[in-house]
Design goal:
Elements (H helix, E strand, L loop, with lengths): L6 H48 L8 E2 L4 H13 L4 E7 L2 E8 L18 E2 L4 H14 L24 H5 L12 H4 L2 H12 L8 H6 L16 H15 L3 H10 L40 E2 L1 H12 L6 H7 L10 E3 L2 E7 L4 E7 L4 E7 L8 H13 L1
Antiparallel strand pairs: 1-3, 2-3, 2-9, 4-5, 6-7, 7-8, 8-9
Helix pairs in contact: 2-12, 3-8, 3-9
């Protein structure tokens, strides 16, 4: 090492060494800062990604599109003029124009808050779309066929060899309706017992429909004409359970709700955010397990929108299968089809609903109401909204 001999040499070398050390220090600091940045990105970028992912549009309380201000204004004026209470979602193509709730969750308990777009309601017979899709999933897997006689699963049923799976799906079985005609389907004492249990929100005997199925008369001859009947979809749910070895609820959660990202949908008795009341101020629902397959789902307008998008775009069943389900100008497999419109309504005792999809215009309208159908009719509101969009 060279020694500094005097002050002159020290004065001469000092600036050189100082600049060299300064450059070295700058390079080290720069590299260190790069390493720290990479470390921070490694640690926190996944957290940032998942945080952003969870805060998606469906987590909002409402959606109001700025791109459709005229349409939104028209719809909101229409709803206000008609004193609408419930939840609405309107979408065109892949854009949600409006998703919003109106009115209280429970008119007897206003402190519970107001209806939002993710608020859950009983959706009634809209449930049939999902039951039909579940059956068609099994058809695609060749676990059953549309032409199968239902005697395969109900060997003691006297009309089992006259009715096929397809007849249940498209309402051509001729069966008597266990829900809307209980005094024809059940013995008088049993029908009265079911009615009393309903208004008291009490359970009925498990599988009571199957117990009395063989004694129930046919309404019309099987395969002759269309007759809307809830019994059909109860039997489809029971067929699904036998074929899969799972409960209907388990199958629907795994194969319908979860794949469609239906986060607020369930099949539990009276597990809704809202409550409705009849003209006597009573809150009651179809008894648990009695509505299996035909009216046992609770959901929101957002989840029903997700369901519709998945269903019509081949994500639940194949597109070829979906086309077969809607190949009608009456009642297909779990859906009504008329003039190209695909729709279904629903009504339980104190809720009513309507969901419609127009393939030509790619318009989806979903209306859920926590009031009886004779007070505020969901289908009428959906028709009114569609008319506004056509102006």
């Amino acid at each position: 090492m060279k020694k500094i001999q005097n002050c002159k040499e020290f004065i001469f070398l000092s600036p050189i060494r100082t600049r060299w050390l300064s450059k070295l220090r700058s390079k080290c600091l720069l590299r260190l800062s790069h390493l720290l940045l990479l470390l921070l990105l490694h640690l926190f970028l996944p957290l940032l990604f998942f945080a952003c992912k969870s805060q998606d549009i469906y987590d909002s309380e409402e959606i109001v599109s700025l791109s459709y201000q005229t349409e939104v204004a028209g719809i909101e004026n229409y709803l206000q003029e008609n004193k609408f209470e419930g939840s609405v979602l309107v979408a065109k193509n892949k854009d949600i124009i409006l998703a919003k709730g109106y009115g209280p969750l429970d008119k007897k308990a206003p402190e519970k808050g107001d209806i939002k777009m993710n608020t859950t309601f009983e959706i009634g017979s809209i449930s049939k779309q999902m039951t039909a899709a579940a059956i068609m999933q099994l058809v695609e897997k060749k676990k059953l066929a549309l032409t199968d006689k239902i005697s395969r699963w109900f060997p003691d049923f006297q009309y089992g060899n006259d009715i096929t799976v397809e007849m249940l799906l498209n309402m051509h079985s001729g069966l008597t309706d266990c829900l809307n005609a209980p005094y024809e389907f059940f013995p008088t004492k049993i029908a009265t017992k079911i009615e009393n249990a309903t208004v008291r929100n009490e359970p009925v005997e498990p599988e009571i429909i199957l117990k009395y199925l063989n004694d129930a008369p046919l309404f019309i001859d099987p395969g002759t004409e269309y007759f809307y009947c809830n019994t059909n979809y109860y039997l489809l749910a029971k067929i699904l359970e036998q074929v899969t070895g799972q409960s209907f609820r388990e199958y629907m959660q795994k194969n319908i709700f979860t794949p469609c990202d239906m986060r607020n949908t369930n099949m539990d008795f009276q597990k809704t955010d809202t409550r409705g009341y009849d003209w006597k101020n009573r809150y009651y629902s179809i008894p648990d397990e009695f509505s299996t397959g035909y009216g046992d789902i609770n959901s929101s307008v957002v989840d029903l929108y997700k369901w519709t998008q998945s269903f019509v775009n081949g994500k639940v069943v194949r597109k070829k299968t979906f086309k077969k389900m809607i190949d009608t100008e009456s009642y297909g497999y779990g859906v009504n089809v008329q003039n190209g419109e695909i729709f279904h309504g629903g009504a339980t005792n104190v809720f009513n609903s309507f969901a419609t999809y127009h393939p030509e215009t790619k318009i989806t309208i979903i209306v859920l109401i926590n009031r009886p159908q004779n007070e505020k009719y969901a289908a009428a509101f959906a028709r009114g909204i569609y008319k506004i969009l056509q102006e």
